[in-house]
Amino acid sequence: MRLASSSLALLTLLTLGASAATASCGKTTDAIADEGTPGADGGTTPDAEIPEDVPLVPASKVDILLVVDNSASMGDKSAALAGSIGTLVRGVEATNDVHLGVISSSLGSMGGDTCSSGDAQNGRARLRKTGPDGVAIPSASQGFLAYGGGAGATGDLAAFAKDAEALVRGVGENGCGLEAQLESAYRFLVQPDPWESVQVDGNNQATMGKAVDVQLLAERAAFLRPDSLVIVLLLTDEDDSNVDPLSIGGQGWAFASQQFPGSTVFRPDGKSTTAPRATSACKTAPGSAACTSCGFAATCEASTAECQAIKSDPECQKNGGYYGPTEDELNVRFHRMKERFGVDPQYPLSRYVTGFSSARVPDRATEHVETTVSGRRVIEPYTGAPKCTNPLFAAKLPAAPGDELCDLPRGPRSRELVVFGVLGGVVPALATATPDWTKILGADPGAYDDTGIDPHMIPSTAPRAGLPAPSATRGDNGPDPVHGREWETRGSDLQYACTFTLPVARQCSAADPSCDCARDENPPLCGAAVGQQIRAKAYPSLRPLRVAKELGDRGVIGSICPTDPTKGYDATLETLVARLTSRLAK
Fold first, then answer.
1. How confident is the model over 315-352, as pLDDT tens digits?
2. Among 138, 144, 130, CA closest to 98
3. Less crowded by CB within 10 Å, the N or C end of the chain?
4. How confident is the model at residue 50 (pLDDT cuts 50, 70, 90)?
């Protein structure tokens, strides 16, 4: 992620948390630990009329959804995936009935001021139809490719794979730097009533309105068959960095903004402002009730002990409770959020585990409980109460205005026919068919316990203990076989989970946001000459990896840093194909 500062004027917004001022100011977050993360079985209550799951009937159709990160620096990785697509499609060729669609990781600003509403930065999880340079791919005119005997399908596997490669390459790398990999997949496959747009109302609270993205519904209905094996494959070199706009009393959108509501601490650009600090307890006990946001000091009930604790907290005394001018770069805001901000504005991971597993899911109205007090919406933390038939497990899908969105008949797909893969930022040696989850995620990531984690998997702006130190010598990329070495990020970037040699070195300029070697920083990616980049990088992709872990044997992971760049991601896709054996009809 490399983001430019916004040029918008400073917004006149209420202090974060104004809508959440209650007698108990400590209850402020929808963090993963508070919400809980269900196991592989999904964690929702079975409905009497809609069976939670149905017996597995091996599928004779396959629907493949590729979610491709299109932020800066993803071009080389997209090319590697494109080169390995043939491995995946050949693995499911025998069904003679395959759909393949591609969406990007960009969902726009989610109410903030960072990313535009254009197609590149807000793909809205709609299926892509173009290849490199925006050239239309005729076989993808309906939004996806089809192979086999179905209507509009090709019987030429080589042509099918070639067009799939073109779709992947066409995603590009000029998308939103706040990647929404998980939410994009959820929006396309699961959300019963996908929003048209996210707005901020007169009370500075996010609203998604009542309008529904009918184009997406039509694309979903055409792409997704009720009895297919569904493969969801994410390609990303970063962590999921999307907000739930309605979190934190409807002001979760603020974390996607350069100008943070209520902050008067300007960054050196003189335009953007910093976010509130976390209370002192967050450094050592982020799951405790004492861990909350200093932003609540302005609006909590002063007579309560909880409020006084926030106001008197040493961290909340600094800069009026906000981070200093160089302490909160938006480029690195989305890591260890509860520890650093006292709140976690992202959707809980249970949303995605449930979405890929359960027969019922919430619609927009039941994601958060809302009431109105004195003309202002009071928005509770995410609950995700199951209400509607999950489109992923429905027999018939809405496709036009006026179609029923929620009360859909249950289809024949077992949850065992939904497989989720991640090609992300993870140490290659750990991303095996039987991953060492403790080394990848720590002992209990939901409880903020990273005991046993491999140091490469720790998201940090500062050099991490146990790894080679930074070097000031350009071209000295370090001795570590996984990522080379640490580097001086100056607080504006994260350390890497892994790096890999580019098939062809590139010469680039500081004007290219995808270039890591044209500035005076010295990451372990560069040749001796300024502007020469010889390696590519990835950051720890912890949230997508956690979802894969919770899905059990329906989750497959691989490193986006290939051990042999000439073979791309063949090994991971072979593992994924092997996982499909019992799920496909003979």
1. 999 999 999 999 999 999 999 999 999 999 999 999 99
2. 144
3. C
4. confident
Examine residue 404 and state whether it is found in any structural domain, yes or no.
no
Strand bridging mode 229-235 / 418-424: parallel
CA distance 109 to 114: 6
Give the end of a domain, one of 325, 346, 367: 346
Question: Is position 215 within any domain?
Answer: no
pTM, 2 dp: 0.92
Domain boundary among 323, 346, 369: 346
Which residues touch 158 (CB under 8 Å, ≥6 apart)? none
User: What pLDDT sits at residue 152?
Assistant: 80
Closest alpha carbon to 463 in 423, 491, 504, 442: 491
Burial class (CB in 10 A: 0-12, 13-18, 19+), 262: buried
Question: Which 3 state secondary structure label does DSSP give 353?
Answer: helix
Q: Are 184 and 104 in contact (CB under 8 A)?
A: yes
Can you give the residue range of the structural domain that contains 472? 464-538
* Phi, psi dihedrals of residue 474, rounded to the nearest 5°: -70, 135
In a domain, 119, yes or no: no
Domain count, the chain: 2
Sign of CA dihedral 518, 520, 521, 525: positive
**Residue 4 counted as domain residue:** yes
Query: Is 24's pLDDT higher than 60?
Result: no
Please report the pLDDT score of residue 1 as a whole number.
54
